[in-house]
Records
---
Amino acid sequence: MITLIQTSTVGSGGAASIEFTGIPQEAKDLLLLLSLRNSVDSSSGTLAFNTGGSYTRMRFFGNGSTEDSDTSAIDIQANTSVSTANTFSNTEVCVRNYSDAQAKHYSVNSVNENNATLAIQAFIAGRWSETAAITSLELTPTSGDFVEHSTASLYSIS
Amino acid sequence: MPTPTYELLHSTTLASPASSITIGSIEGTYGDLILELSYIPDAPALKPYLTVNSDTGANYNYVLMRGVGGTEVSASRSNENYIFLNENGIGSGEIATSKIQISDYSSTDKHKSMLITAFRVSGNVQATAGRWASTAAITSITLTGGSFEIGTTANLYGVSK
């Protein structure tokens, strides 16, 4: 069963980050669905759980003409200030066994839809080194702010 | 009463190592299946693959793309005996995750298509589109390919349409 925990919608003026706190611990996995656009020409952003710890990532992506894979510190792709007007990204993040006492593994399927020839789709494998249960989650763009009408919805899967 | 839209049908957490995981007696009352996996290899390395309905005939076809950190691969496989979740395998002590989505799994008038994503943070990421060349309804799913360690989890969900 999928249960909505909370939806966050960015208001006028934008937001430097989107945060969820007090995440319930009863479920198996967490599912995060994102629709994001950045205020500047920068598509990347990161995900942070609780506080502290380190992150390891493997990203595989294509942009319509080339493909690549790397270990960049990127968890999500957002549309940017130069994307087609009114377009937002589409991202699914799944965090497995988020309350277990082991390092947390998450997967990301992210695309910044753009109605143009350049659009990035990325699959990302991530690991957070900490063994504490995840009780909070924060999304932050690498630079700039998330613009108005960006949304983030957090669900539990049980 | 409507069918729940994302219903947990089966949940396994291994309490001892296992050479395979089978989820059987899958009811045909949902539209799609989603299998969420978090797997830990027991030594030697695990190279997990999927079969359905205990069919190990040459009935599996798939197209994959994979990134390994600077090297990318796109390939197709025809008339295979199974579908690899991650062709590169997973080293001992690592944890990898996969999501398997099977559309119209209970239909009896079409081959079964599936989308598989496999995530291995210290190795590679693979996305696979697969087809089981049978019109039979899927009633069981088996994962094999090495030894699954204690703590491996498999959660199967039914999605109504």
Note: The two ends of chain A are 5 Å apart (CA to CA).
---
Amino acid sequence: MSRRVDHLLAGFAEGDAISWDALRMQEACCEQGLDSTLYAPPAFTESRAAGRVRSLADYAGRPGDVAILHDALAPEAAQAFFATPAHRVFRYHNITPADFFRGFDDSLAERLSAARAALRPVAEAADAVWSDSAFNAAELAGWAVAKSRVLPLLFREEPPRTPDPVVAARTGGGLANILFVGRLAPNKRIEELILAFHWYHRAVNPRSRLIVAGSERSCPRYAAMLRLLAHALNLPNVCFEGFASPEGLAALYAGASLFATASAHEGYCLPLVEAMAAGVPVLARRTGGMPEALGGAGLLYEELTAPQLGELMGEAIGNADLRARLLASQAARMVEIRARKPADELARLLAELD
Amino acid sequence: MARIWLAGEEATAAWVPRLDRLAAARRPDAAAEAARHAAPLVLREAPDEKAELDRRLELLRAYGVLRLDDLAMPRGRGISRGLAALRQALWRLLRHPLDQVAVRQNAVNRQLLAALESALTEQRREIAALRGRVAALESARRAPPGGTA
């Protein structure tokens, strides 16, 4: 019987970074001729993904197989991980520090604290820990988890999706679109983007729009605050798109003049890579795993005021020389990312388990 | 300290002064002032569920009324004068039915908001009354039984 490499997930949704990473790893395993299956609780599996993901209740590991746990926050997946006789690998995608959520959602903050506290037992029970960025590996090293290896988040461009015509029409009209993609959570510091956009829209380019695309379910109070801020600043051109389908995202990237994020904590930030792949200039805060994801491309900043950030948005959109330099650096970075051989990288890490 | 990296190279020395110069030249003081006041006003953390509910109502009040006056008439930049005139004529024609729709929608929104606020006020009044009664009962229970041995 051939070795199996199975993935234990908290859930599965198209467009979710962890789900995509597990899917890419599964494809890399299949390229090597290994059997590989994704397991997740059916209640948290997107209905259209049901064919490619099996119920976690069906998981039965054997000695010699490999089980990769992708989310320490998921109790069912962690339970299966602790019980399996297979080699155990913990894939660390980062857990947002609880302090970002205090005041906005104290119960979630407590859960995140508990999850961070539970990381060490999970890592200790694992035969190997694979972090998806050097930043995440360094974070684990800070908790005395020394065996972490870095396997950068896997990215593969999907076959081109037809952009959703409704989203394209709604966000078209010749305006300069500044796009943010990600959950509406306090660590993303979307309020700083709104304040910078306020400057850009009022002082630089009134024919502009800030599009915030991402689920509002993570922290509804924070999402409500953002809407209040946009209203208080009289900015009807701040558009909250909610969670975007792959077709919706294709339309948003196709119509974006700039991708911007002020996030203060990211383990890697897959949307930066998606934006680069779509040929959209990227502006991001220099923190967490984002410099690593950009790999020397794009525009990074630290501690800019709202007017400075608003002016930088204006330059990234309207300064042809700067834009060309950014796009050239991003194209070079995408060549590196596309040249990766996930199957080989994975094979090397799997060989270390024996 | 403000810092900028461009395509992997630090560009702080060139770019931060440039951004400051651009911002100073535009001088949209009112915009900056509004931003300074608005941020703490709306983003301060709601300390409890009651405060959160109040903020959601504030949001409903802010977004619940449709104002067609806010919609600018299309001026038709970059298109022919005839086409611009047609667009403006259509805009004027559409305003009448749109006004009616907005008036009806606003009536519904106002009723909903008023009903919600009324229900909330009533609920808070009832909770306060119940808390008073519970406190009185607890106090009566803790008190020593009447009379003497």
Note: Residues 22 and 150 of chain A are 15 Å apart (CA to CA).
